[in-house]
Design a protein that fits this description.
Blueprint: E1 3-8, E2 13-18, H1 24-30, H2 33-39, E3 59-63, E4 69-72, E5 76-77, E6 85-86, E7 95-100, E8 107-112, E9 118-127, E10 132-136, E11 141-145
Antiparallel strand pairs: 1-2, 3-4, 3-11, 5-6, 6-10, 7-8, 8-9, 9-10
Length: 149
């Protein structure tokens, strides 16, 4: 299967974890049809439909498929786009960025490093201090309140 290193904020260190590899039929059984469409088939949810858009409490946003920590709530900001936006990830180890040439444009796709889930895209028009806007599909994430990890 193979291992990768990710950053675990609960332990405040880099740890080795097994990659999460599942067949298409396994993902279909584990996910809702909408989660499957977005995370596996690189879909996009409708803007302004994220169920945690107004959450302001401390916590971390994890991958809906494998639970890997992706974004700290302190980096979330309102981009006005209708999708949850963050100015940085928990760690560059926890995500993979790759070129996406779909829809006749060039963008940078963001994937979960552990399971390969499609999360969204990152743009260079975000908030300080990074200037990045990680524009994520809310359905690809789950919010875990501080202390519940």
């Amino acid at each position: 299967m193979g291992t990768i290193q990710i950053f675990d904020s609960h332990q405040n260190k880099v740890i080795d974890v097994e990659k999460v590899l599942k067949t298409d039929s396994e993902w279909k059984r584990l996910l809702t049809p909408e989660q499957y469409r977005i995370t596996t088939n690189k879909g996009t949810e409708n803007p302004f439909t994220c169920t945690f858009a107004n959450i302001k409490e401390p916590g971390v946003y994890v991958c809906a498929r494998c639970g890997t920590e992706l974004f700290d709530s302190g980096t979330k900001f309102d981009s006005g786009t209708g999708w949850p936006s963050y100015y940085e990830s928990v760690s560059i180890l926890n995500i993979v960025e790759q070129i996406d040439r779909s829809l006749r444009m060039i963008r940078t796709e963001v994937l979960c490093a552990r399971c390969g889930s499609h999360l969204g895209h990152v743009f260079d028009d975000g908030s300080p201090p990074t200037g990045k806007r990680y524009c994520m599909n809310g359905i690809a994430l789950k919010f875990v309140p501080e202390g519940k990890l």
